[in-house]
Amino acid sequence: MEKLREVGRPVVRVDAYDKVTGRAKFTDDLCPKPCLEAKIYHATIGNGRVVSIDTSDAEKEPGVVAVFTCFDVPDTCYPVAGHPWYADSAAAKRDQADRKLLDDRVRIYGDNIAVVVGEDTVACDRALKKIHVEYEEYPVVYDALESMKGTNPPVQDRKPDNIVAHSLARTSEEDLARAGYKTVEEALEDPKYHHVKIHAESREQSQVHIETCVSYCYMEGGKIVCVSSTQIPHVVRRVIGQALGIPWGDVRVIKPYIGGGFGTKQDVHYEPLNAWICKQIGGRCVKLELSREELFWDTSGRQPKTFDIECSYDDEMNLHARKIVAYSNTGGYVHHGHALVLNSVNSFRWLYHTQEVATHSEAYTIHTNGPHTGAMRAYGVPEGNWAAECLMGDIAYDNGWDGVEFRLKNVYTDKFVDEFTPGGVIAAHTCGIPECVEKGKEYIEWDKKKAEYANETGPIRHGVGVSFFVYKTAVAPFALETATAAVTLNQDGSIQLQMGATEIGQGADTVFSQMAAEAIGVDTEDVHIVSFQDTDVTPYDSGAYASRQTYVSGTAVKKAGETLRRKILDYAHYLHPSAQGELCLRDHKIFDVVGNVVCTLPELALEAYYNLGAANQLHAHETINVHTNSIAGGCTFADVTVDMPLGKVTVNKIINVQDSGRLINPKLVEQQIHGGMAQGIGYGLFEELQVDPKTARVLNPTLLDYKIPTTMDLPDLKADFVEKPDPTGPYGNKAVGETPAISPAAAIRDAILDATGCKFYVEPMTPQRLFEGFKKEGLI
């Protein structure tokens, strides 16, 4: 692997000092105090329509400035999902524009039907209690399969059958014929092969980021300025413009430091409403911050999904044919809609397919009266991975096969470049899965522990488990991938870097600084990055999601850095025409071809700014479109103790090993993996947004009742890597930010199966579910 100077260094985060000392300013830190506060009035039914709202008592409450209802706002629908906009905007509006600032049609429990603006939150809270609403109620449906049968009225008028979308991908008739079959079902049911069916489920998980969703808006110079904790500032600007029916240039969005998002803040939640309120009250500053309770049921967690799976396989561990049908509950609104379950079934199909002759991959996304759902870390893939690994774990266990050997025989390889998408746009140009597995096996002591735990009896048992994962990088070819970077040579020879891509806690600013330094030929410490995004001055980028930024936005950084480097050397030639041969830049100096110092970089920078004959601020501003995509992969191994009478699983050891190509900053990657593993463990054992099926009301919208793993629940988290540079990444890199959240849940499930022989198909595997499963099998 080629040795690089800055890429690959475990440099300290560029924002570390400000964050650990408390100097970093987040949205609420910057909000002018005092300012007006806004609070939402939420519907107290799960399905129906607002007949009337009486706000007269609320308006009389001291400190109340205004009360607006669903009958006051524009009758304009807009999209909220943080996706890039397309030239074919009519199609995007038709497919995703289903939200209003406030709505008289109640589709979910807690829908937004009015807003109070007051001098402080106390006034707002008092006023909210004095709003009187009359509803026309409709029956509530939360079950997706039941909702597919149709409701009257439908959840969304444009979808009379409540089906948002349906997709189907099957092995072609020509390919089936070559294998001797007419249909996929015939391949599945071929008597020469073993046939298995399972049903798996995954429930809704919430992001539980520390900083709540918060924004404040004011008017300045005729513009609405929105300061927001968002992953997608340029998208927020566009959506505010659409929602208010004003030119997008009349909106300015600023994103300060952000305290976590994990996908919640890839949606445009309340910024348009806040901007509209601001405009109605003459441009005064208004802050709108969600409570922790509101975050659970009025933002967007991971979609609940069910999977019906069939598989045929032979005695030599070869998969023969597979079929998956997935049903995804998107709740009352589209948000990210069908893209999430497509990721689920695609990852199911991509991960294991080496020996397969037939596949059937089908998916439905369905409206219900359930709470909002949307993007969450790894965007549908953990659910598909759960389904795939439940199947693989069962087959290995039932046949007495080694789970690692069985998976390795069927996992994707770098020889299947064109198997992921036609033409190989999404491709495994490199695949380090076998090497990842060897590292994971060694750490977990796979063979030793398998033998040691094999014959345990009694109420407390031990097991080891494994799961593999696959993940694409970015969203091409399914959506637009574009980014821009701007770099400038400062007067002292340092570099100014501006990105539209957003730092959300993952370390993006640091790796962008390293990539810029590598491309230009300076030290990372010489690069000053502007962490705040401001849509009036920041280059365009669609934002932080899909593990895209280092891959896509990093390509823009590299291109801009290389352009600036050329400009610096060209200017050096201008200043020193007698310099010999091609010049190069390193160690803050310009060298000629024989190694003589032509000038220092600070000397050149001063000349560039102040030369009487040829002053020139040297800078580069580059936009790129990325049309490639790359497959990252890896594995998780877990060692667990299972206390069956208590229904308790303790994770003793766990390791995530992944091939994410070249690592830009290994220390940051390790931190990313630790965080993702913690979320994956929570997804497997604790976290479930519980919804009352009769009312569609969330039952546990507090940190007391929604269980996430704490430091007391987590073992030492081990991360390791296999670096196989990818030819399409700007420096050989590919996805890393979301991948570690994918496979821990399935690895723990496999370890429980190894320990007890019990098969669990619903995640999370809570104590209640574990206890019931063990009792059903006669183990307690």
UniProtKB/TrEMBL annotation:
It comes from the Bacteria. Coiled coil: none annotated. GO terms for cellular component: xanthine dehydrogenase complex. Keywords: Molybdenum, Oxidoreductase. It comes from Parolsenella catena. Residues 21-139 form the Aldehyde oxidase/xanthine dehydrogenase a/b hammerhead domain. This is Xanthine dehydrogenase, substrate and molybdenum cofactor subunit. InterPro entries: Ald_Oxase/Xan_DH_a/b (IPR000674), Ald_Oxase/Xan_DH_a/b_sf (IPR036856), Ald_Oxase/xanthine_DH-like (IPR016208), AldOxase/xan_DH_MoCoBD1 (IPR008274), AldOxase/xan_DH_MoCoBD2 (IPR046867), AldOxase/xan_DH_Mopterin-bd_sf (IPR037165), XdhA_XDHase (IPR050028). One of its GO terms (molecular function) is xanthine dehydrogenase activity. Pfam families: Ald_Xan_dh_C (PF01315), MoCoBD_1 (PF02738), MoCoBD_2 (PF20256).
